[in-house]
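Notes taken during the Thursday session

The instructor put the following on the board and asked us to keep it in front of us for the whole hour. The protein is Acyl-[acyl-carrier-protein] hydrolase. We were told not to look anything up and to reason only from what is written here. First, the residues (427 in total):
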Amino acid sequence: MAGSLAASAFFPVPGSSPAASARSSKNTTGELPENLSVRGIVAKPNPSPGAMQVKAQAQALPKVNGTKVNLKTTSPDKEDIIPYTAPKTFYNQLPDWSMLLAAVTTIFLAAEKQWTLLDWKPKKPDMLADTFGFGRIIQDGLVFRQNFLIRSYEIGADRTASIETLMNHLQETALNHVKTAGLLGDGFGATPEMSKRNLIWVVSKIQLLVERYPSWGDMVQVDTWVAAAGKNGMRRDWHVRDYNSGQTILRATSVWVMMNKNTRRLSKMPDEVRAEIGPYFNGRSAISEEQGEKLPKPGTTFDGAATKQFTRKGLTPKWSDLDVNQHVNNVKYIGWILESAPISILEKHELASMTLDYRKECGRDSVLQSLTTVSGECDDGNTESSIQCDHLLQLESGADIVKAHTEWRPKRAQGEGNMGFFPAESA
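Then, after some discussion, the predicted structure tokens were revealed:
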């Protein structure tokens, strides 16, 4: 009795009272008729009375995609819509993993950006790390070291790095040395005190001694340092090695002087500038005095050897040849000098040494000519002898820009061992 009343009260039949519904719904045995459901609505007869299932308390279906499911009756006359609140289940109480993943990703990216923007200049110079290949200061802050990978576009017809490529490495390490030491002003290698006085560095002399030329994919290690050169100059040296074997590739030394950027005249070194760069001076020399070379006077012959002269005219700088100081980059002069070298030398010999004496800067409107005087036989098929050349790069008006002297040795066969002038040294 109690069960039928509860069910009938929960689902009342429209148009009748609960009591009347309860009385009319019972048969003589006190049981519900077979054709009457718990909702008081006529239902399809079941195969057997035992198949009837009655729920004392109805439960709503769980949410589907966040939408409540309403219970519908199968009555053809009227449908009862009864809303229910879904109970809390284990799945409904799980956190939103996509939001958690987005938060973790945001934190990771922020940390990565902060790490990348860190100042890689600790207090002690010897603690500098070459994490990104930018170079580091070693040996008590007196030497700067940087590694370079020889790229495919940096090699020439011999499948080795060109002399211009190696010269660019020297120039790059010089500037990075000044920058890493915290001495870079707003000029091309100028210190803050130099920038205040409109002073810039200009090279007056460079000497190279090449042991061998690296190939595509080789890693080279460049060490550079500075020293005093007279009262108003600075000397910068380089030692280039093979990164894996430690064998010497190239040694170089250079002398730099100061020029006023506005007047284009040479200047004395101010005491304030000397105080900036003085603590970085290193007495070590990459090329000994015995290996040092002075340029011969024009027209000088070597041991009575016959000389031949070759000329290339009409050389003009392009906009891309200028540096930030608005004069032709130092490396460009080397290419112009070799423009007049005979092809027979370039095909059968490789550059072993070069000395350049810079006399005058070259502007973008200059027209130049390159002259090469060869001492020794260079076109008779003899590839076993060394050759020496004198070079002169001058304006077509006659003013000298660069004087140079080069020595050439026969090319080595591919895969030949590193036999050369200079044994490898440990740093």
